[in-house]
Amino acid sequence: MASAVALDAKSIVLDAPLPLDSGQELPGVRLAYESYGELNADKSNAILVFHALTGDQYVASSHPITGKPGWWDRMVGPGKPIDTARYHVICANVVGGCMGSTGPASAGPDGAPYAMRFPVITIRDMVRAQVALLDALGIGRLHAVVGGSMGGMQALSFAANFPGRADRVLAIATTARHSAQNIAFHEVGRQAVMADPEWQGGDYYGKGKGPEKGLSVARMAAHITYLSEEGLTEKFGRRLQDREAKSFGFDADFQVESYLRYQGIAFTDRFDANAYLYITRAMDYLDLAEEHGGRLADAFARSDARFCLVSFDTDWLYPTAESRHVVHALNAVAAPVSFVELSAPYGHDSFLLNVPALDRVVKGFIE
């Protein structure tokens, strides 16, 4: 197990190379993180929150680039479902990320940015690095691990690969492996990035803006999968932009077009294109059953944690069947597990939005 040396309240550098599933080792790994609430004397009240693909460590504090509230500010904080008046909450930027943790934009051993020399990473590698963070903080066993989407993948991987390190595992709107359709959507996004001439084979650091147009398109395509048809229809329908006449051209005539373009452009201000390539690939590689001999139940055979799985009825990216598959595997090894499918109109993004029923599930399970 890689150990770590604390630098300050917001980052650590591992003092040993991080072993990767690829067989390579990544030296000098830095992990950037945020923490909220006080750690109690016996360090038994810690909760590790894993972020999703486009998230970061700013789960409940203002984002330093956008100035917007934390991505789960409605869920984490004093008196909220994950109550920082009671619990010490930690959230780290994943390895491969671009908000302070070591990723493709970081300097390699030769001082130049890794770019596409960065080694292939997996979800398990991300979790392995965060376990090293916990070791550095002297936290042996967590009160809970929590995550939605890619964060839920990390929560399940944590339970499977580091049994005995958490009392509770809460995985929301997630899966134990990607379907062919999931992989296909990600590949469209990756190809959009790599087709942008400004990508320059990934070697764009210090040479201008980088592949902003390609990354914007990738974000637009992915964002569609996070929503539901019902939600899009209710919010936009076929409404035109507020102007006197249609342009009948390639301007954003429809409100939904303008919305997607805004999402794409805003994303490029805070995310690195190469990090997007690496992280989406890590998600595609995840297969918890394959990691444990081909049987998903065996992934959880050594865990002594309590589990809770949550899905949403309008989530077509990770539909309820994916959560049920995990629940059946947990049942097969007699693991204590609860499961609920919640009704919400927002699609996959429901776990980030105002769904009071989710608040009640999270609060009840955490407490």
What proportion strand? 5-15%
CATH architecture of the largest domain: 3-Layer(aba) Sandwich
Give the number of helices: 11
CATH topology of the largest domain: Rossmann fold
Overall number of structural domains: 2
Name the helix and strand elements from N-terminus to C-terminus, one letter apiece: EEEEEEEEEHEHEHHHHHHHEHEH
How many strands, what sense, and barrel or not for the largest sheet?
9 strands, mixed
Q: Specify the CATH homologous superfamily of the largest domain.
A: Alpha/Beta hydrolase fold, catalytic domain
Mean pLDDT: 94
What overall form do the CA principal axes indicate?
globular
Domain AB hydrolase-1: 46-353
EC number: 2.3.1.31
Family: Belongs to the AB hydrolase superfamily. MetX family.
Catalytic activity: L-homoserine + acetyl-CoA = O-acetyl-L-homoserine + CoA
